[in-house]
């Protein structure tokens, strides 16, 4: 068992029966009264952030989470199938565990986090940026790079993104998976 003195950013703890990651913490020692630790905890499954205060020295249950590299294979409608990069074992997880599943392309490498005690998948994290091809968009206008006007484009995964007017069908673009927005055009 660990205590609040062992807190560090990124530590996974069990709190109220669920797994939380410590985003930030601050030890507070007021002039009057007992010391305490003010924290911001992020729920590992839902991503919801909540503030919480622990009494200094309080015992906490630290959980071990392993991150493994997997390659995306295919989606059968109900679940997404992945292959472990080292052991070549296949696993499948539900869409609710995948961040930005609309940008997932066959062959894409992702990180899947597993709870070490139960060997159950907790989350699947996409890379920060992915390069995808545009399968359809309205014809572009040459030289129109000075304005901030955007148009809708369909990507090879079926996702729709807003892109600048000069982007055409067949262009490769980089998409930020955290925000779901166009980042830049990629030279082929």
Strand and helix map with partners:
Blueprint: E1 2-3, E2 12-15, E3 18-28, E4 36-43, E5 49-55, E6 59-62, E7 65-75, E8 80-84, E9 90-93, E10 109-115, E11 120-125, E12 129-137, E13 150-155, E14 160-164, E15 172-176, E16 181-186
Antiparallel strand pairs: 1-6, 2-3, 2-6, 3-4, 4-5, 7-8, 7-10, 8-9, 10-11, 12-13, 12-15, 13-14, 15-16
Number of strands: 16
- The low-confidence parts are none
Based on the structure, what is the oligomeric state of the protein chains? Answer: single chain
DSSP helical segment count: 0
Rounded radius of gyration (Å):
22 Å
Largest sheet: 6 strands, antiparallel
| Secondary-structure element series | EEEEEEEEEEEEEEEE
- Identify the overall geometry: flat
Can you tell me the number of structural domains?
A: 3
Strand % is over 45%
Written account of the structure:
By secondary structure, this protein is an all-beta fold. It folds into 3 domains: 2-62, SH3 type barrels, CATH 2.30.30.30; 65-125, Nucleic acid-binding proteins (OB fold (Dihydrolipoamide Acetyltransferase, E2P), Beta Barrel), CATH 2.40.50; 130-186, OB fold (Dihydrolipoamide Acetyltransferase, E2P) (Beta Barrel). It is 0% helix and 53% strand. The protein contains no helices and 16 strands. It has a 6-stranded antiparallel β-sheet, with no helix packed on it. The chain has a 5-stranded antiparallel β-sheet with strand order 9-8-7-10-11, with no helix packed on it. Strand 15 and strand 16 (181-186) form a beta hairpin. The chain starts with a strand and ends with a strand.
């Amino acid at each position: 068992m660990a205590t609040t003195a062992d807190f560090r950013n990124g530590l996974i703890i069990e709190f109220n029966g669920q797994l939380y990651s410590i985003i930030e913490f601050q030890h507070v020692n007021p002039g009057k009264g007992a010391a305490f630790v003010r924290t911001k905890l992020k729920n590992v499954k839902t991503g919801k952030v909540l503030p919480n205060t622990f009494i200094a020295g309080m015992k906490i249950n630290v959980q071990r989470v392993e991150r493994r590299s997997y390659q995306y294979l295919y989606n059968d409608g109900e679940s997404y199938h992945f292959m472990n990069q080292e052991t070549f074992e296949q696993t499948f997880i539900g869409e609710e565990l995948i961040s930005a599943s609309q940008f997932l392309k066959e062959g894409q490498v992702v990180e899947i986090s597993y709870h070490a005690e139960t060997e159950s998948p907790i989350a699947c994290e996409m890379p920060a940026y992915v390069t995808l091809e545009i399968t359809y968009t309205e014809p572009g206008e040459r030289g129109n790079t000075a304005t901030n006007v955007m148009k809708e484009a369909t990507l090879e995964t079926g996702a729709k993104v807003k892109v600048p007017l000069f982007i055409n069908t067949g262009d490769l673009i980089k998409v930020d998976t955290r925000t779901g927005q166009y980042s830049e055009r990629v030279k082929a």
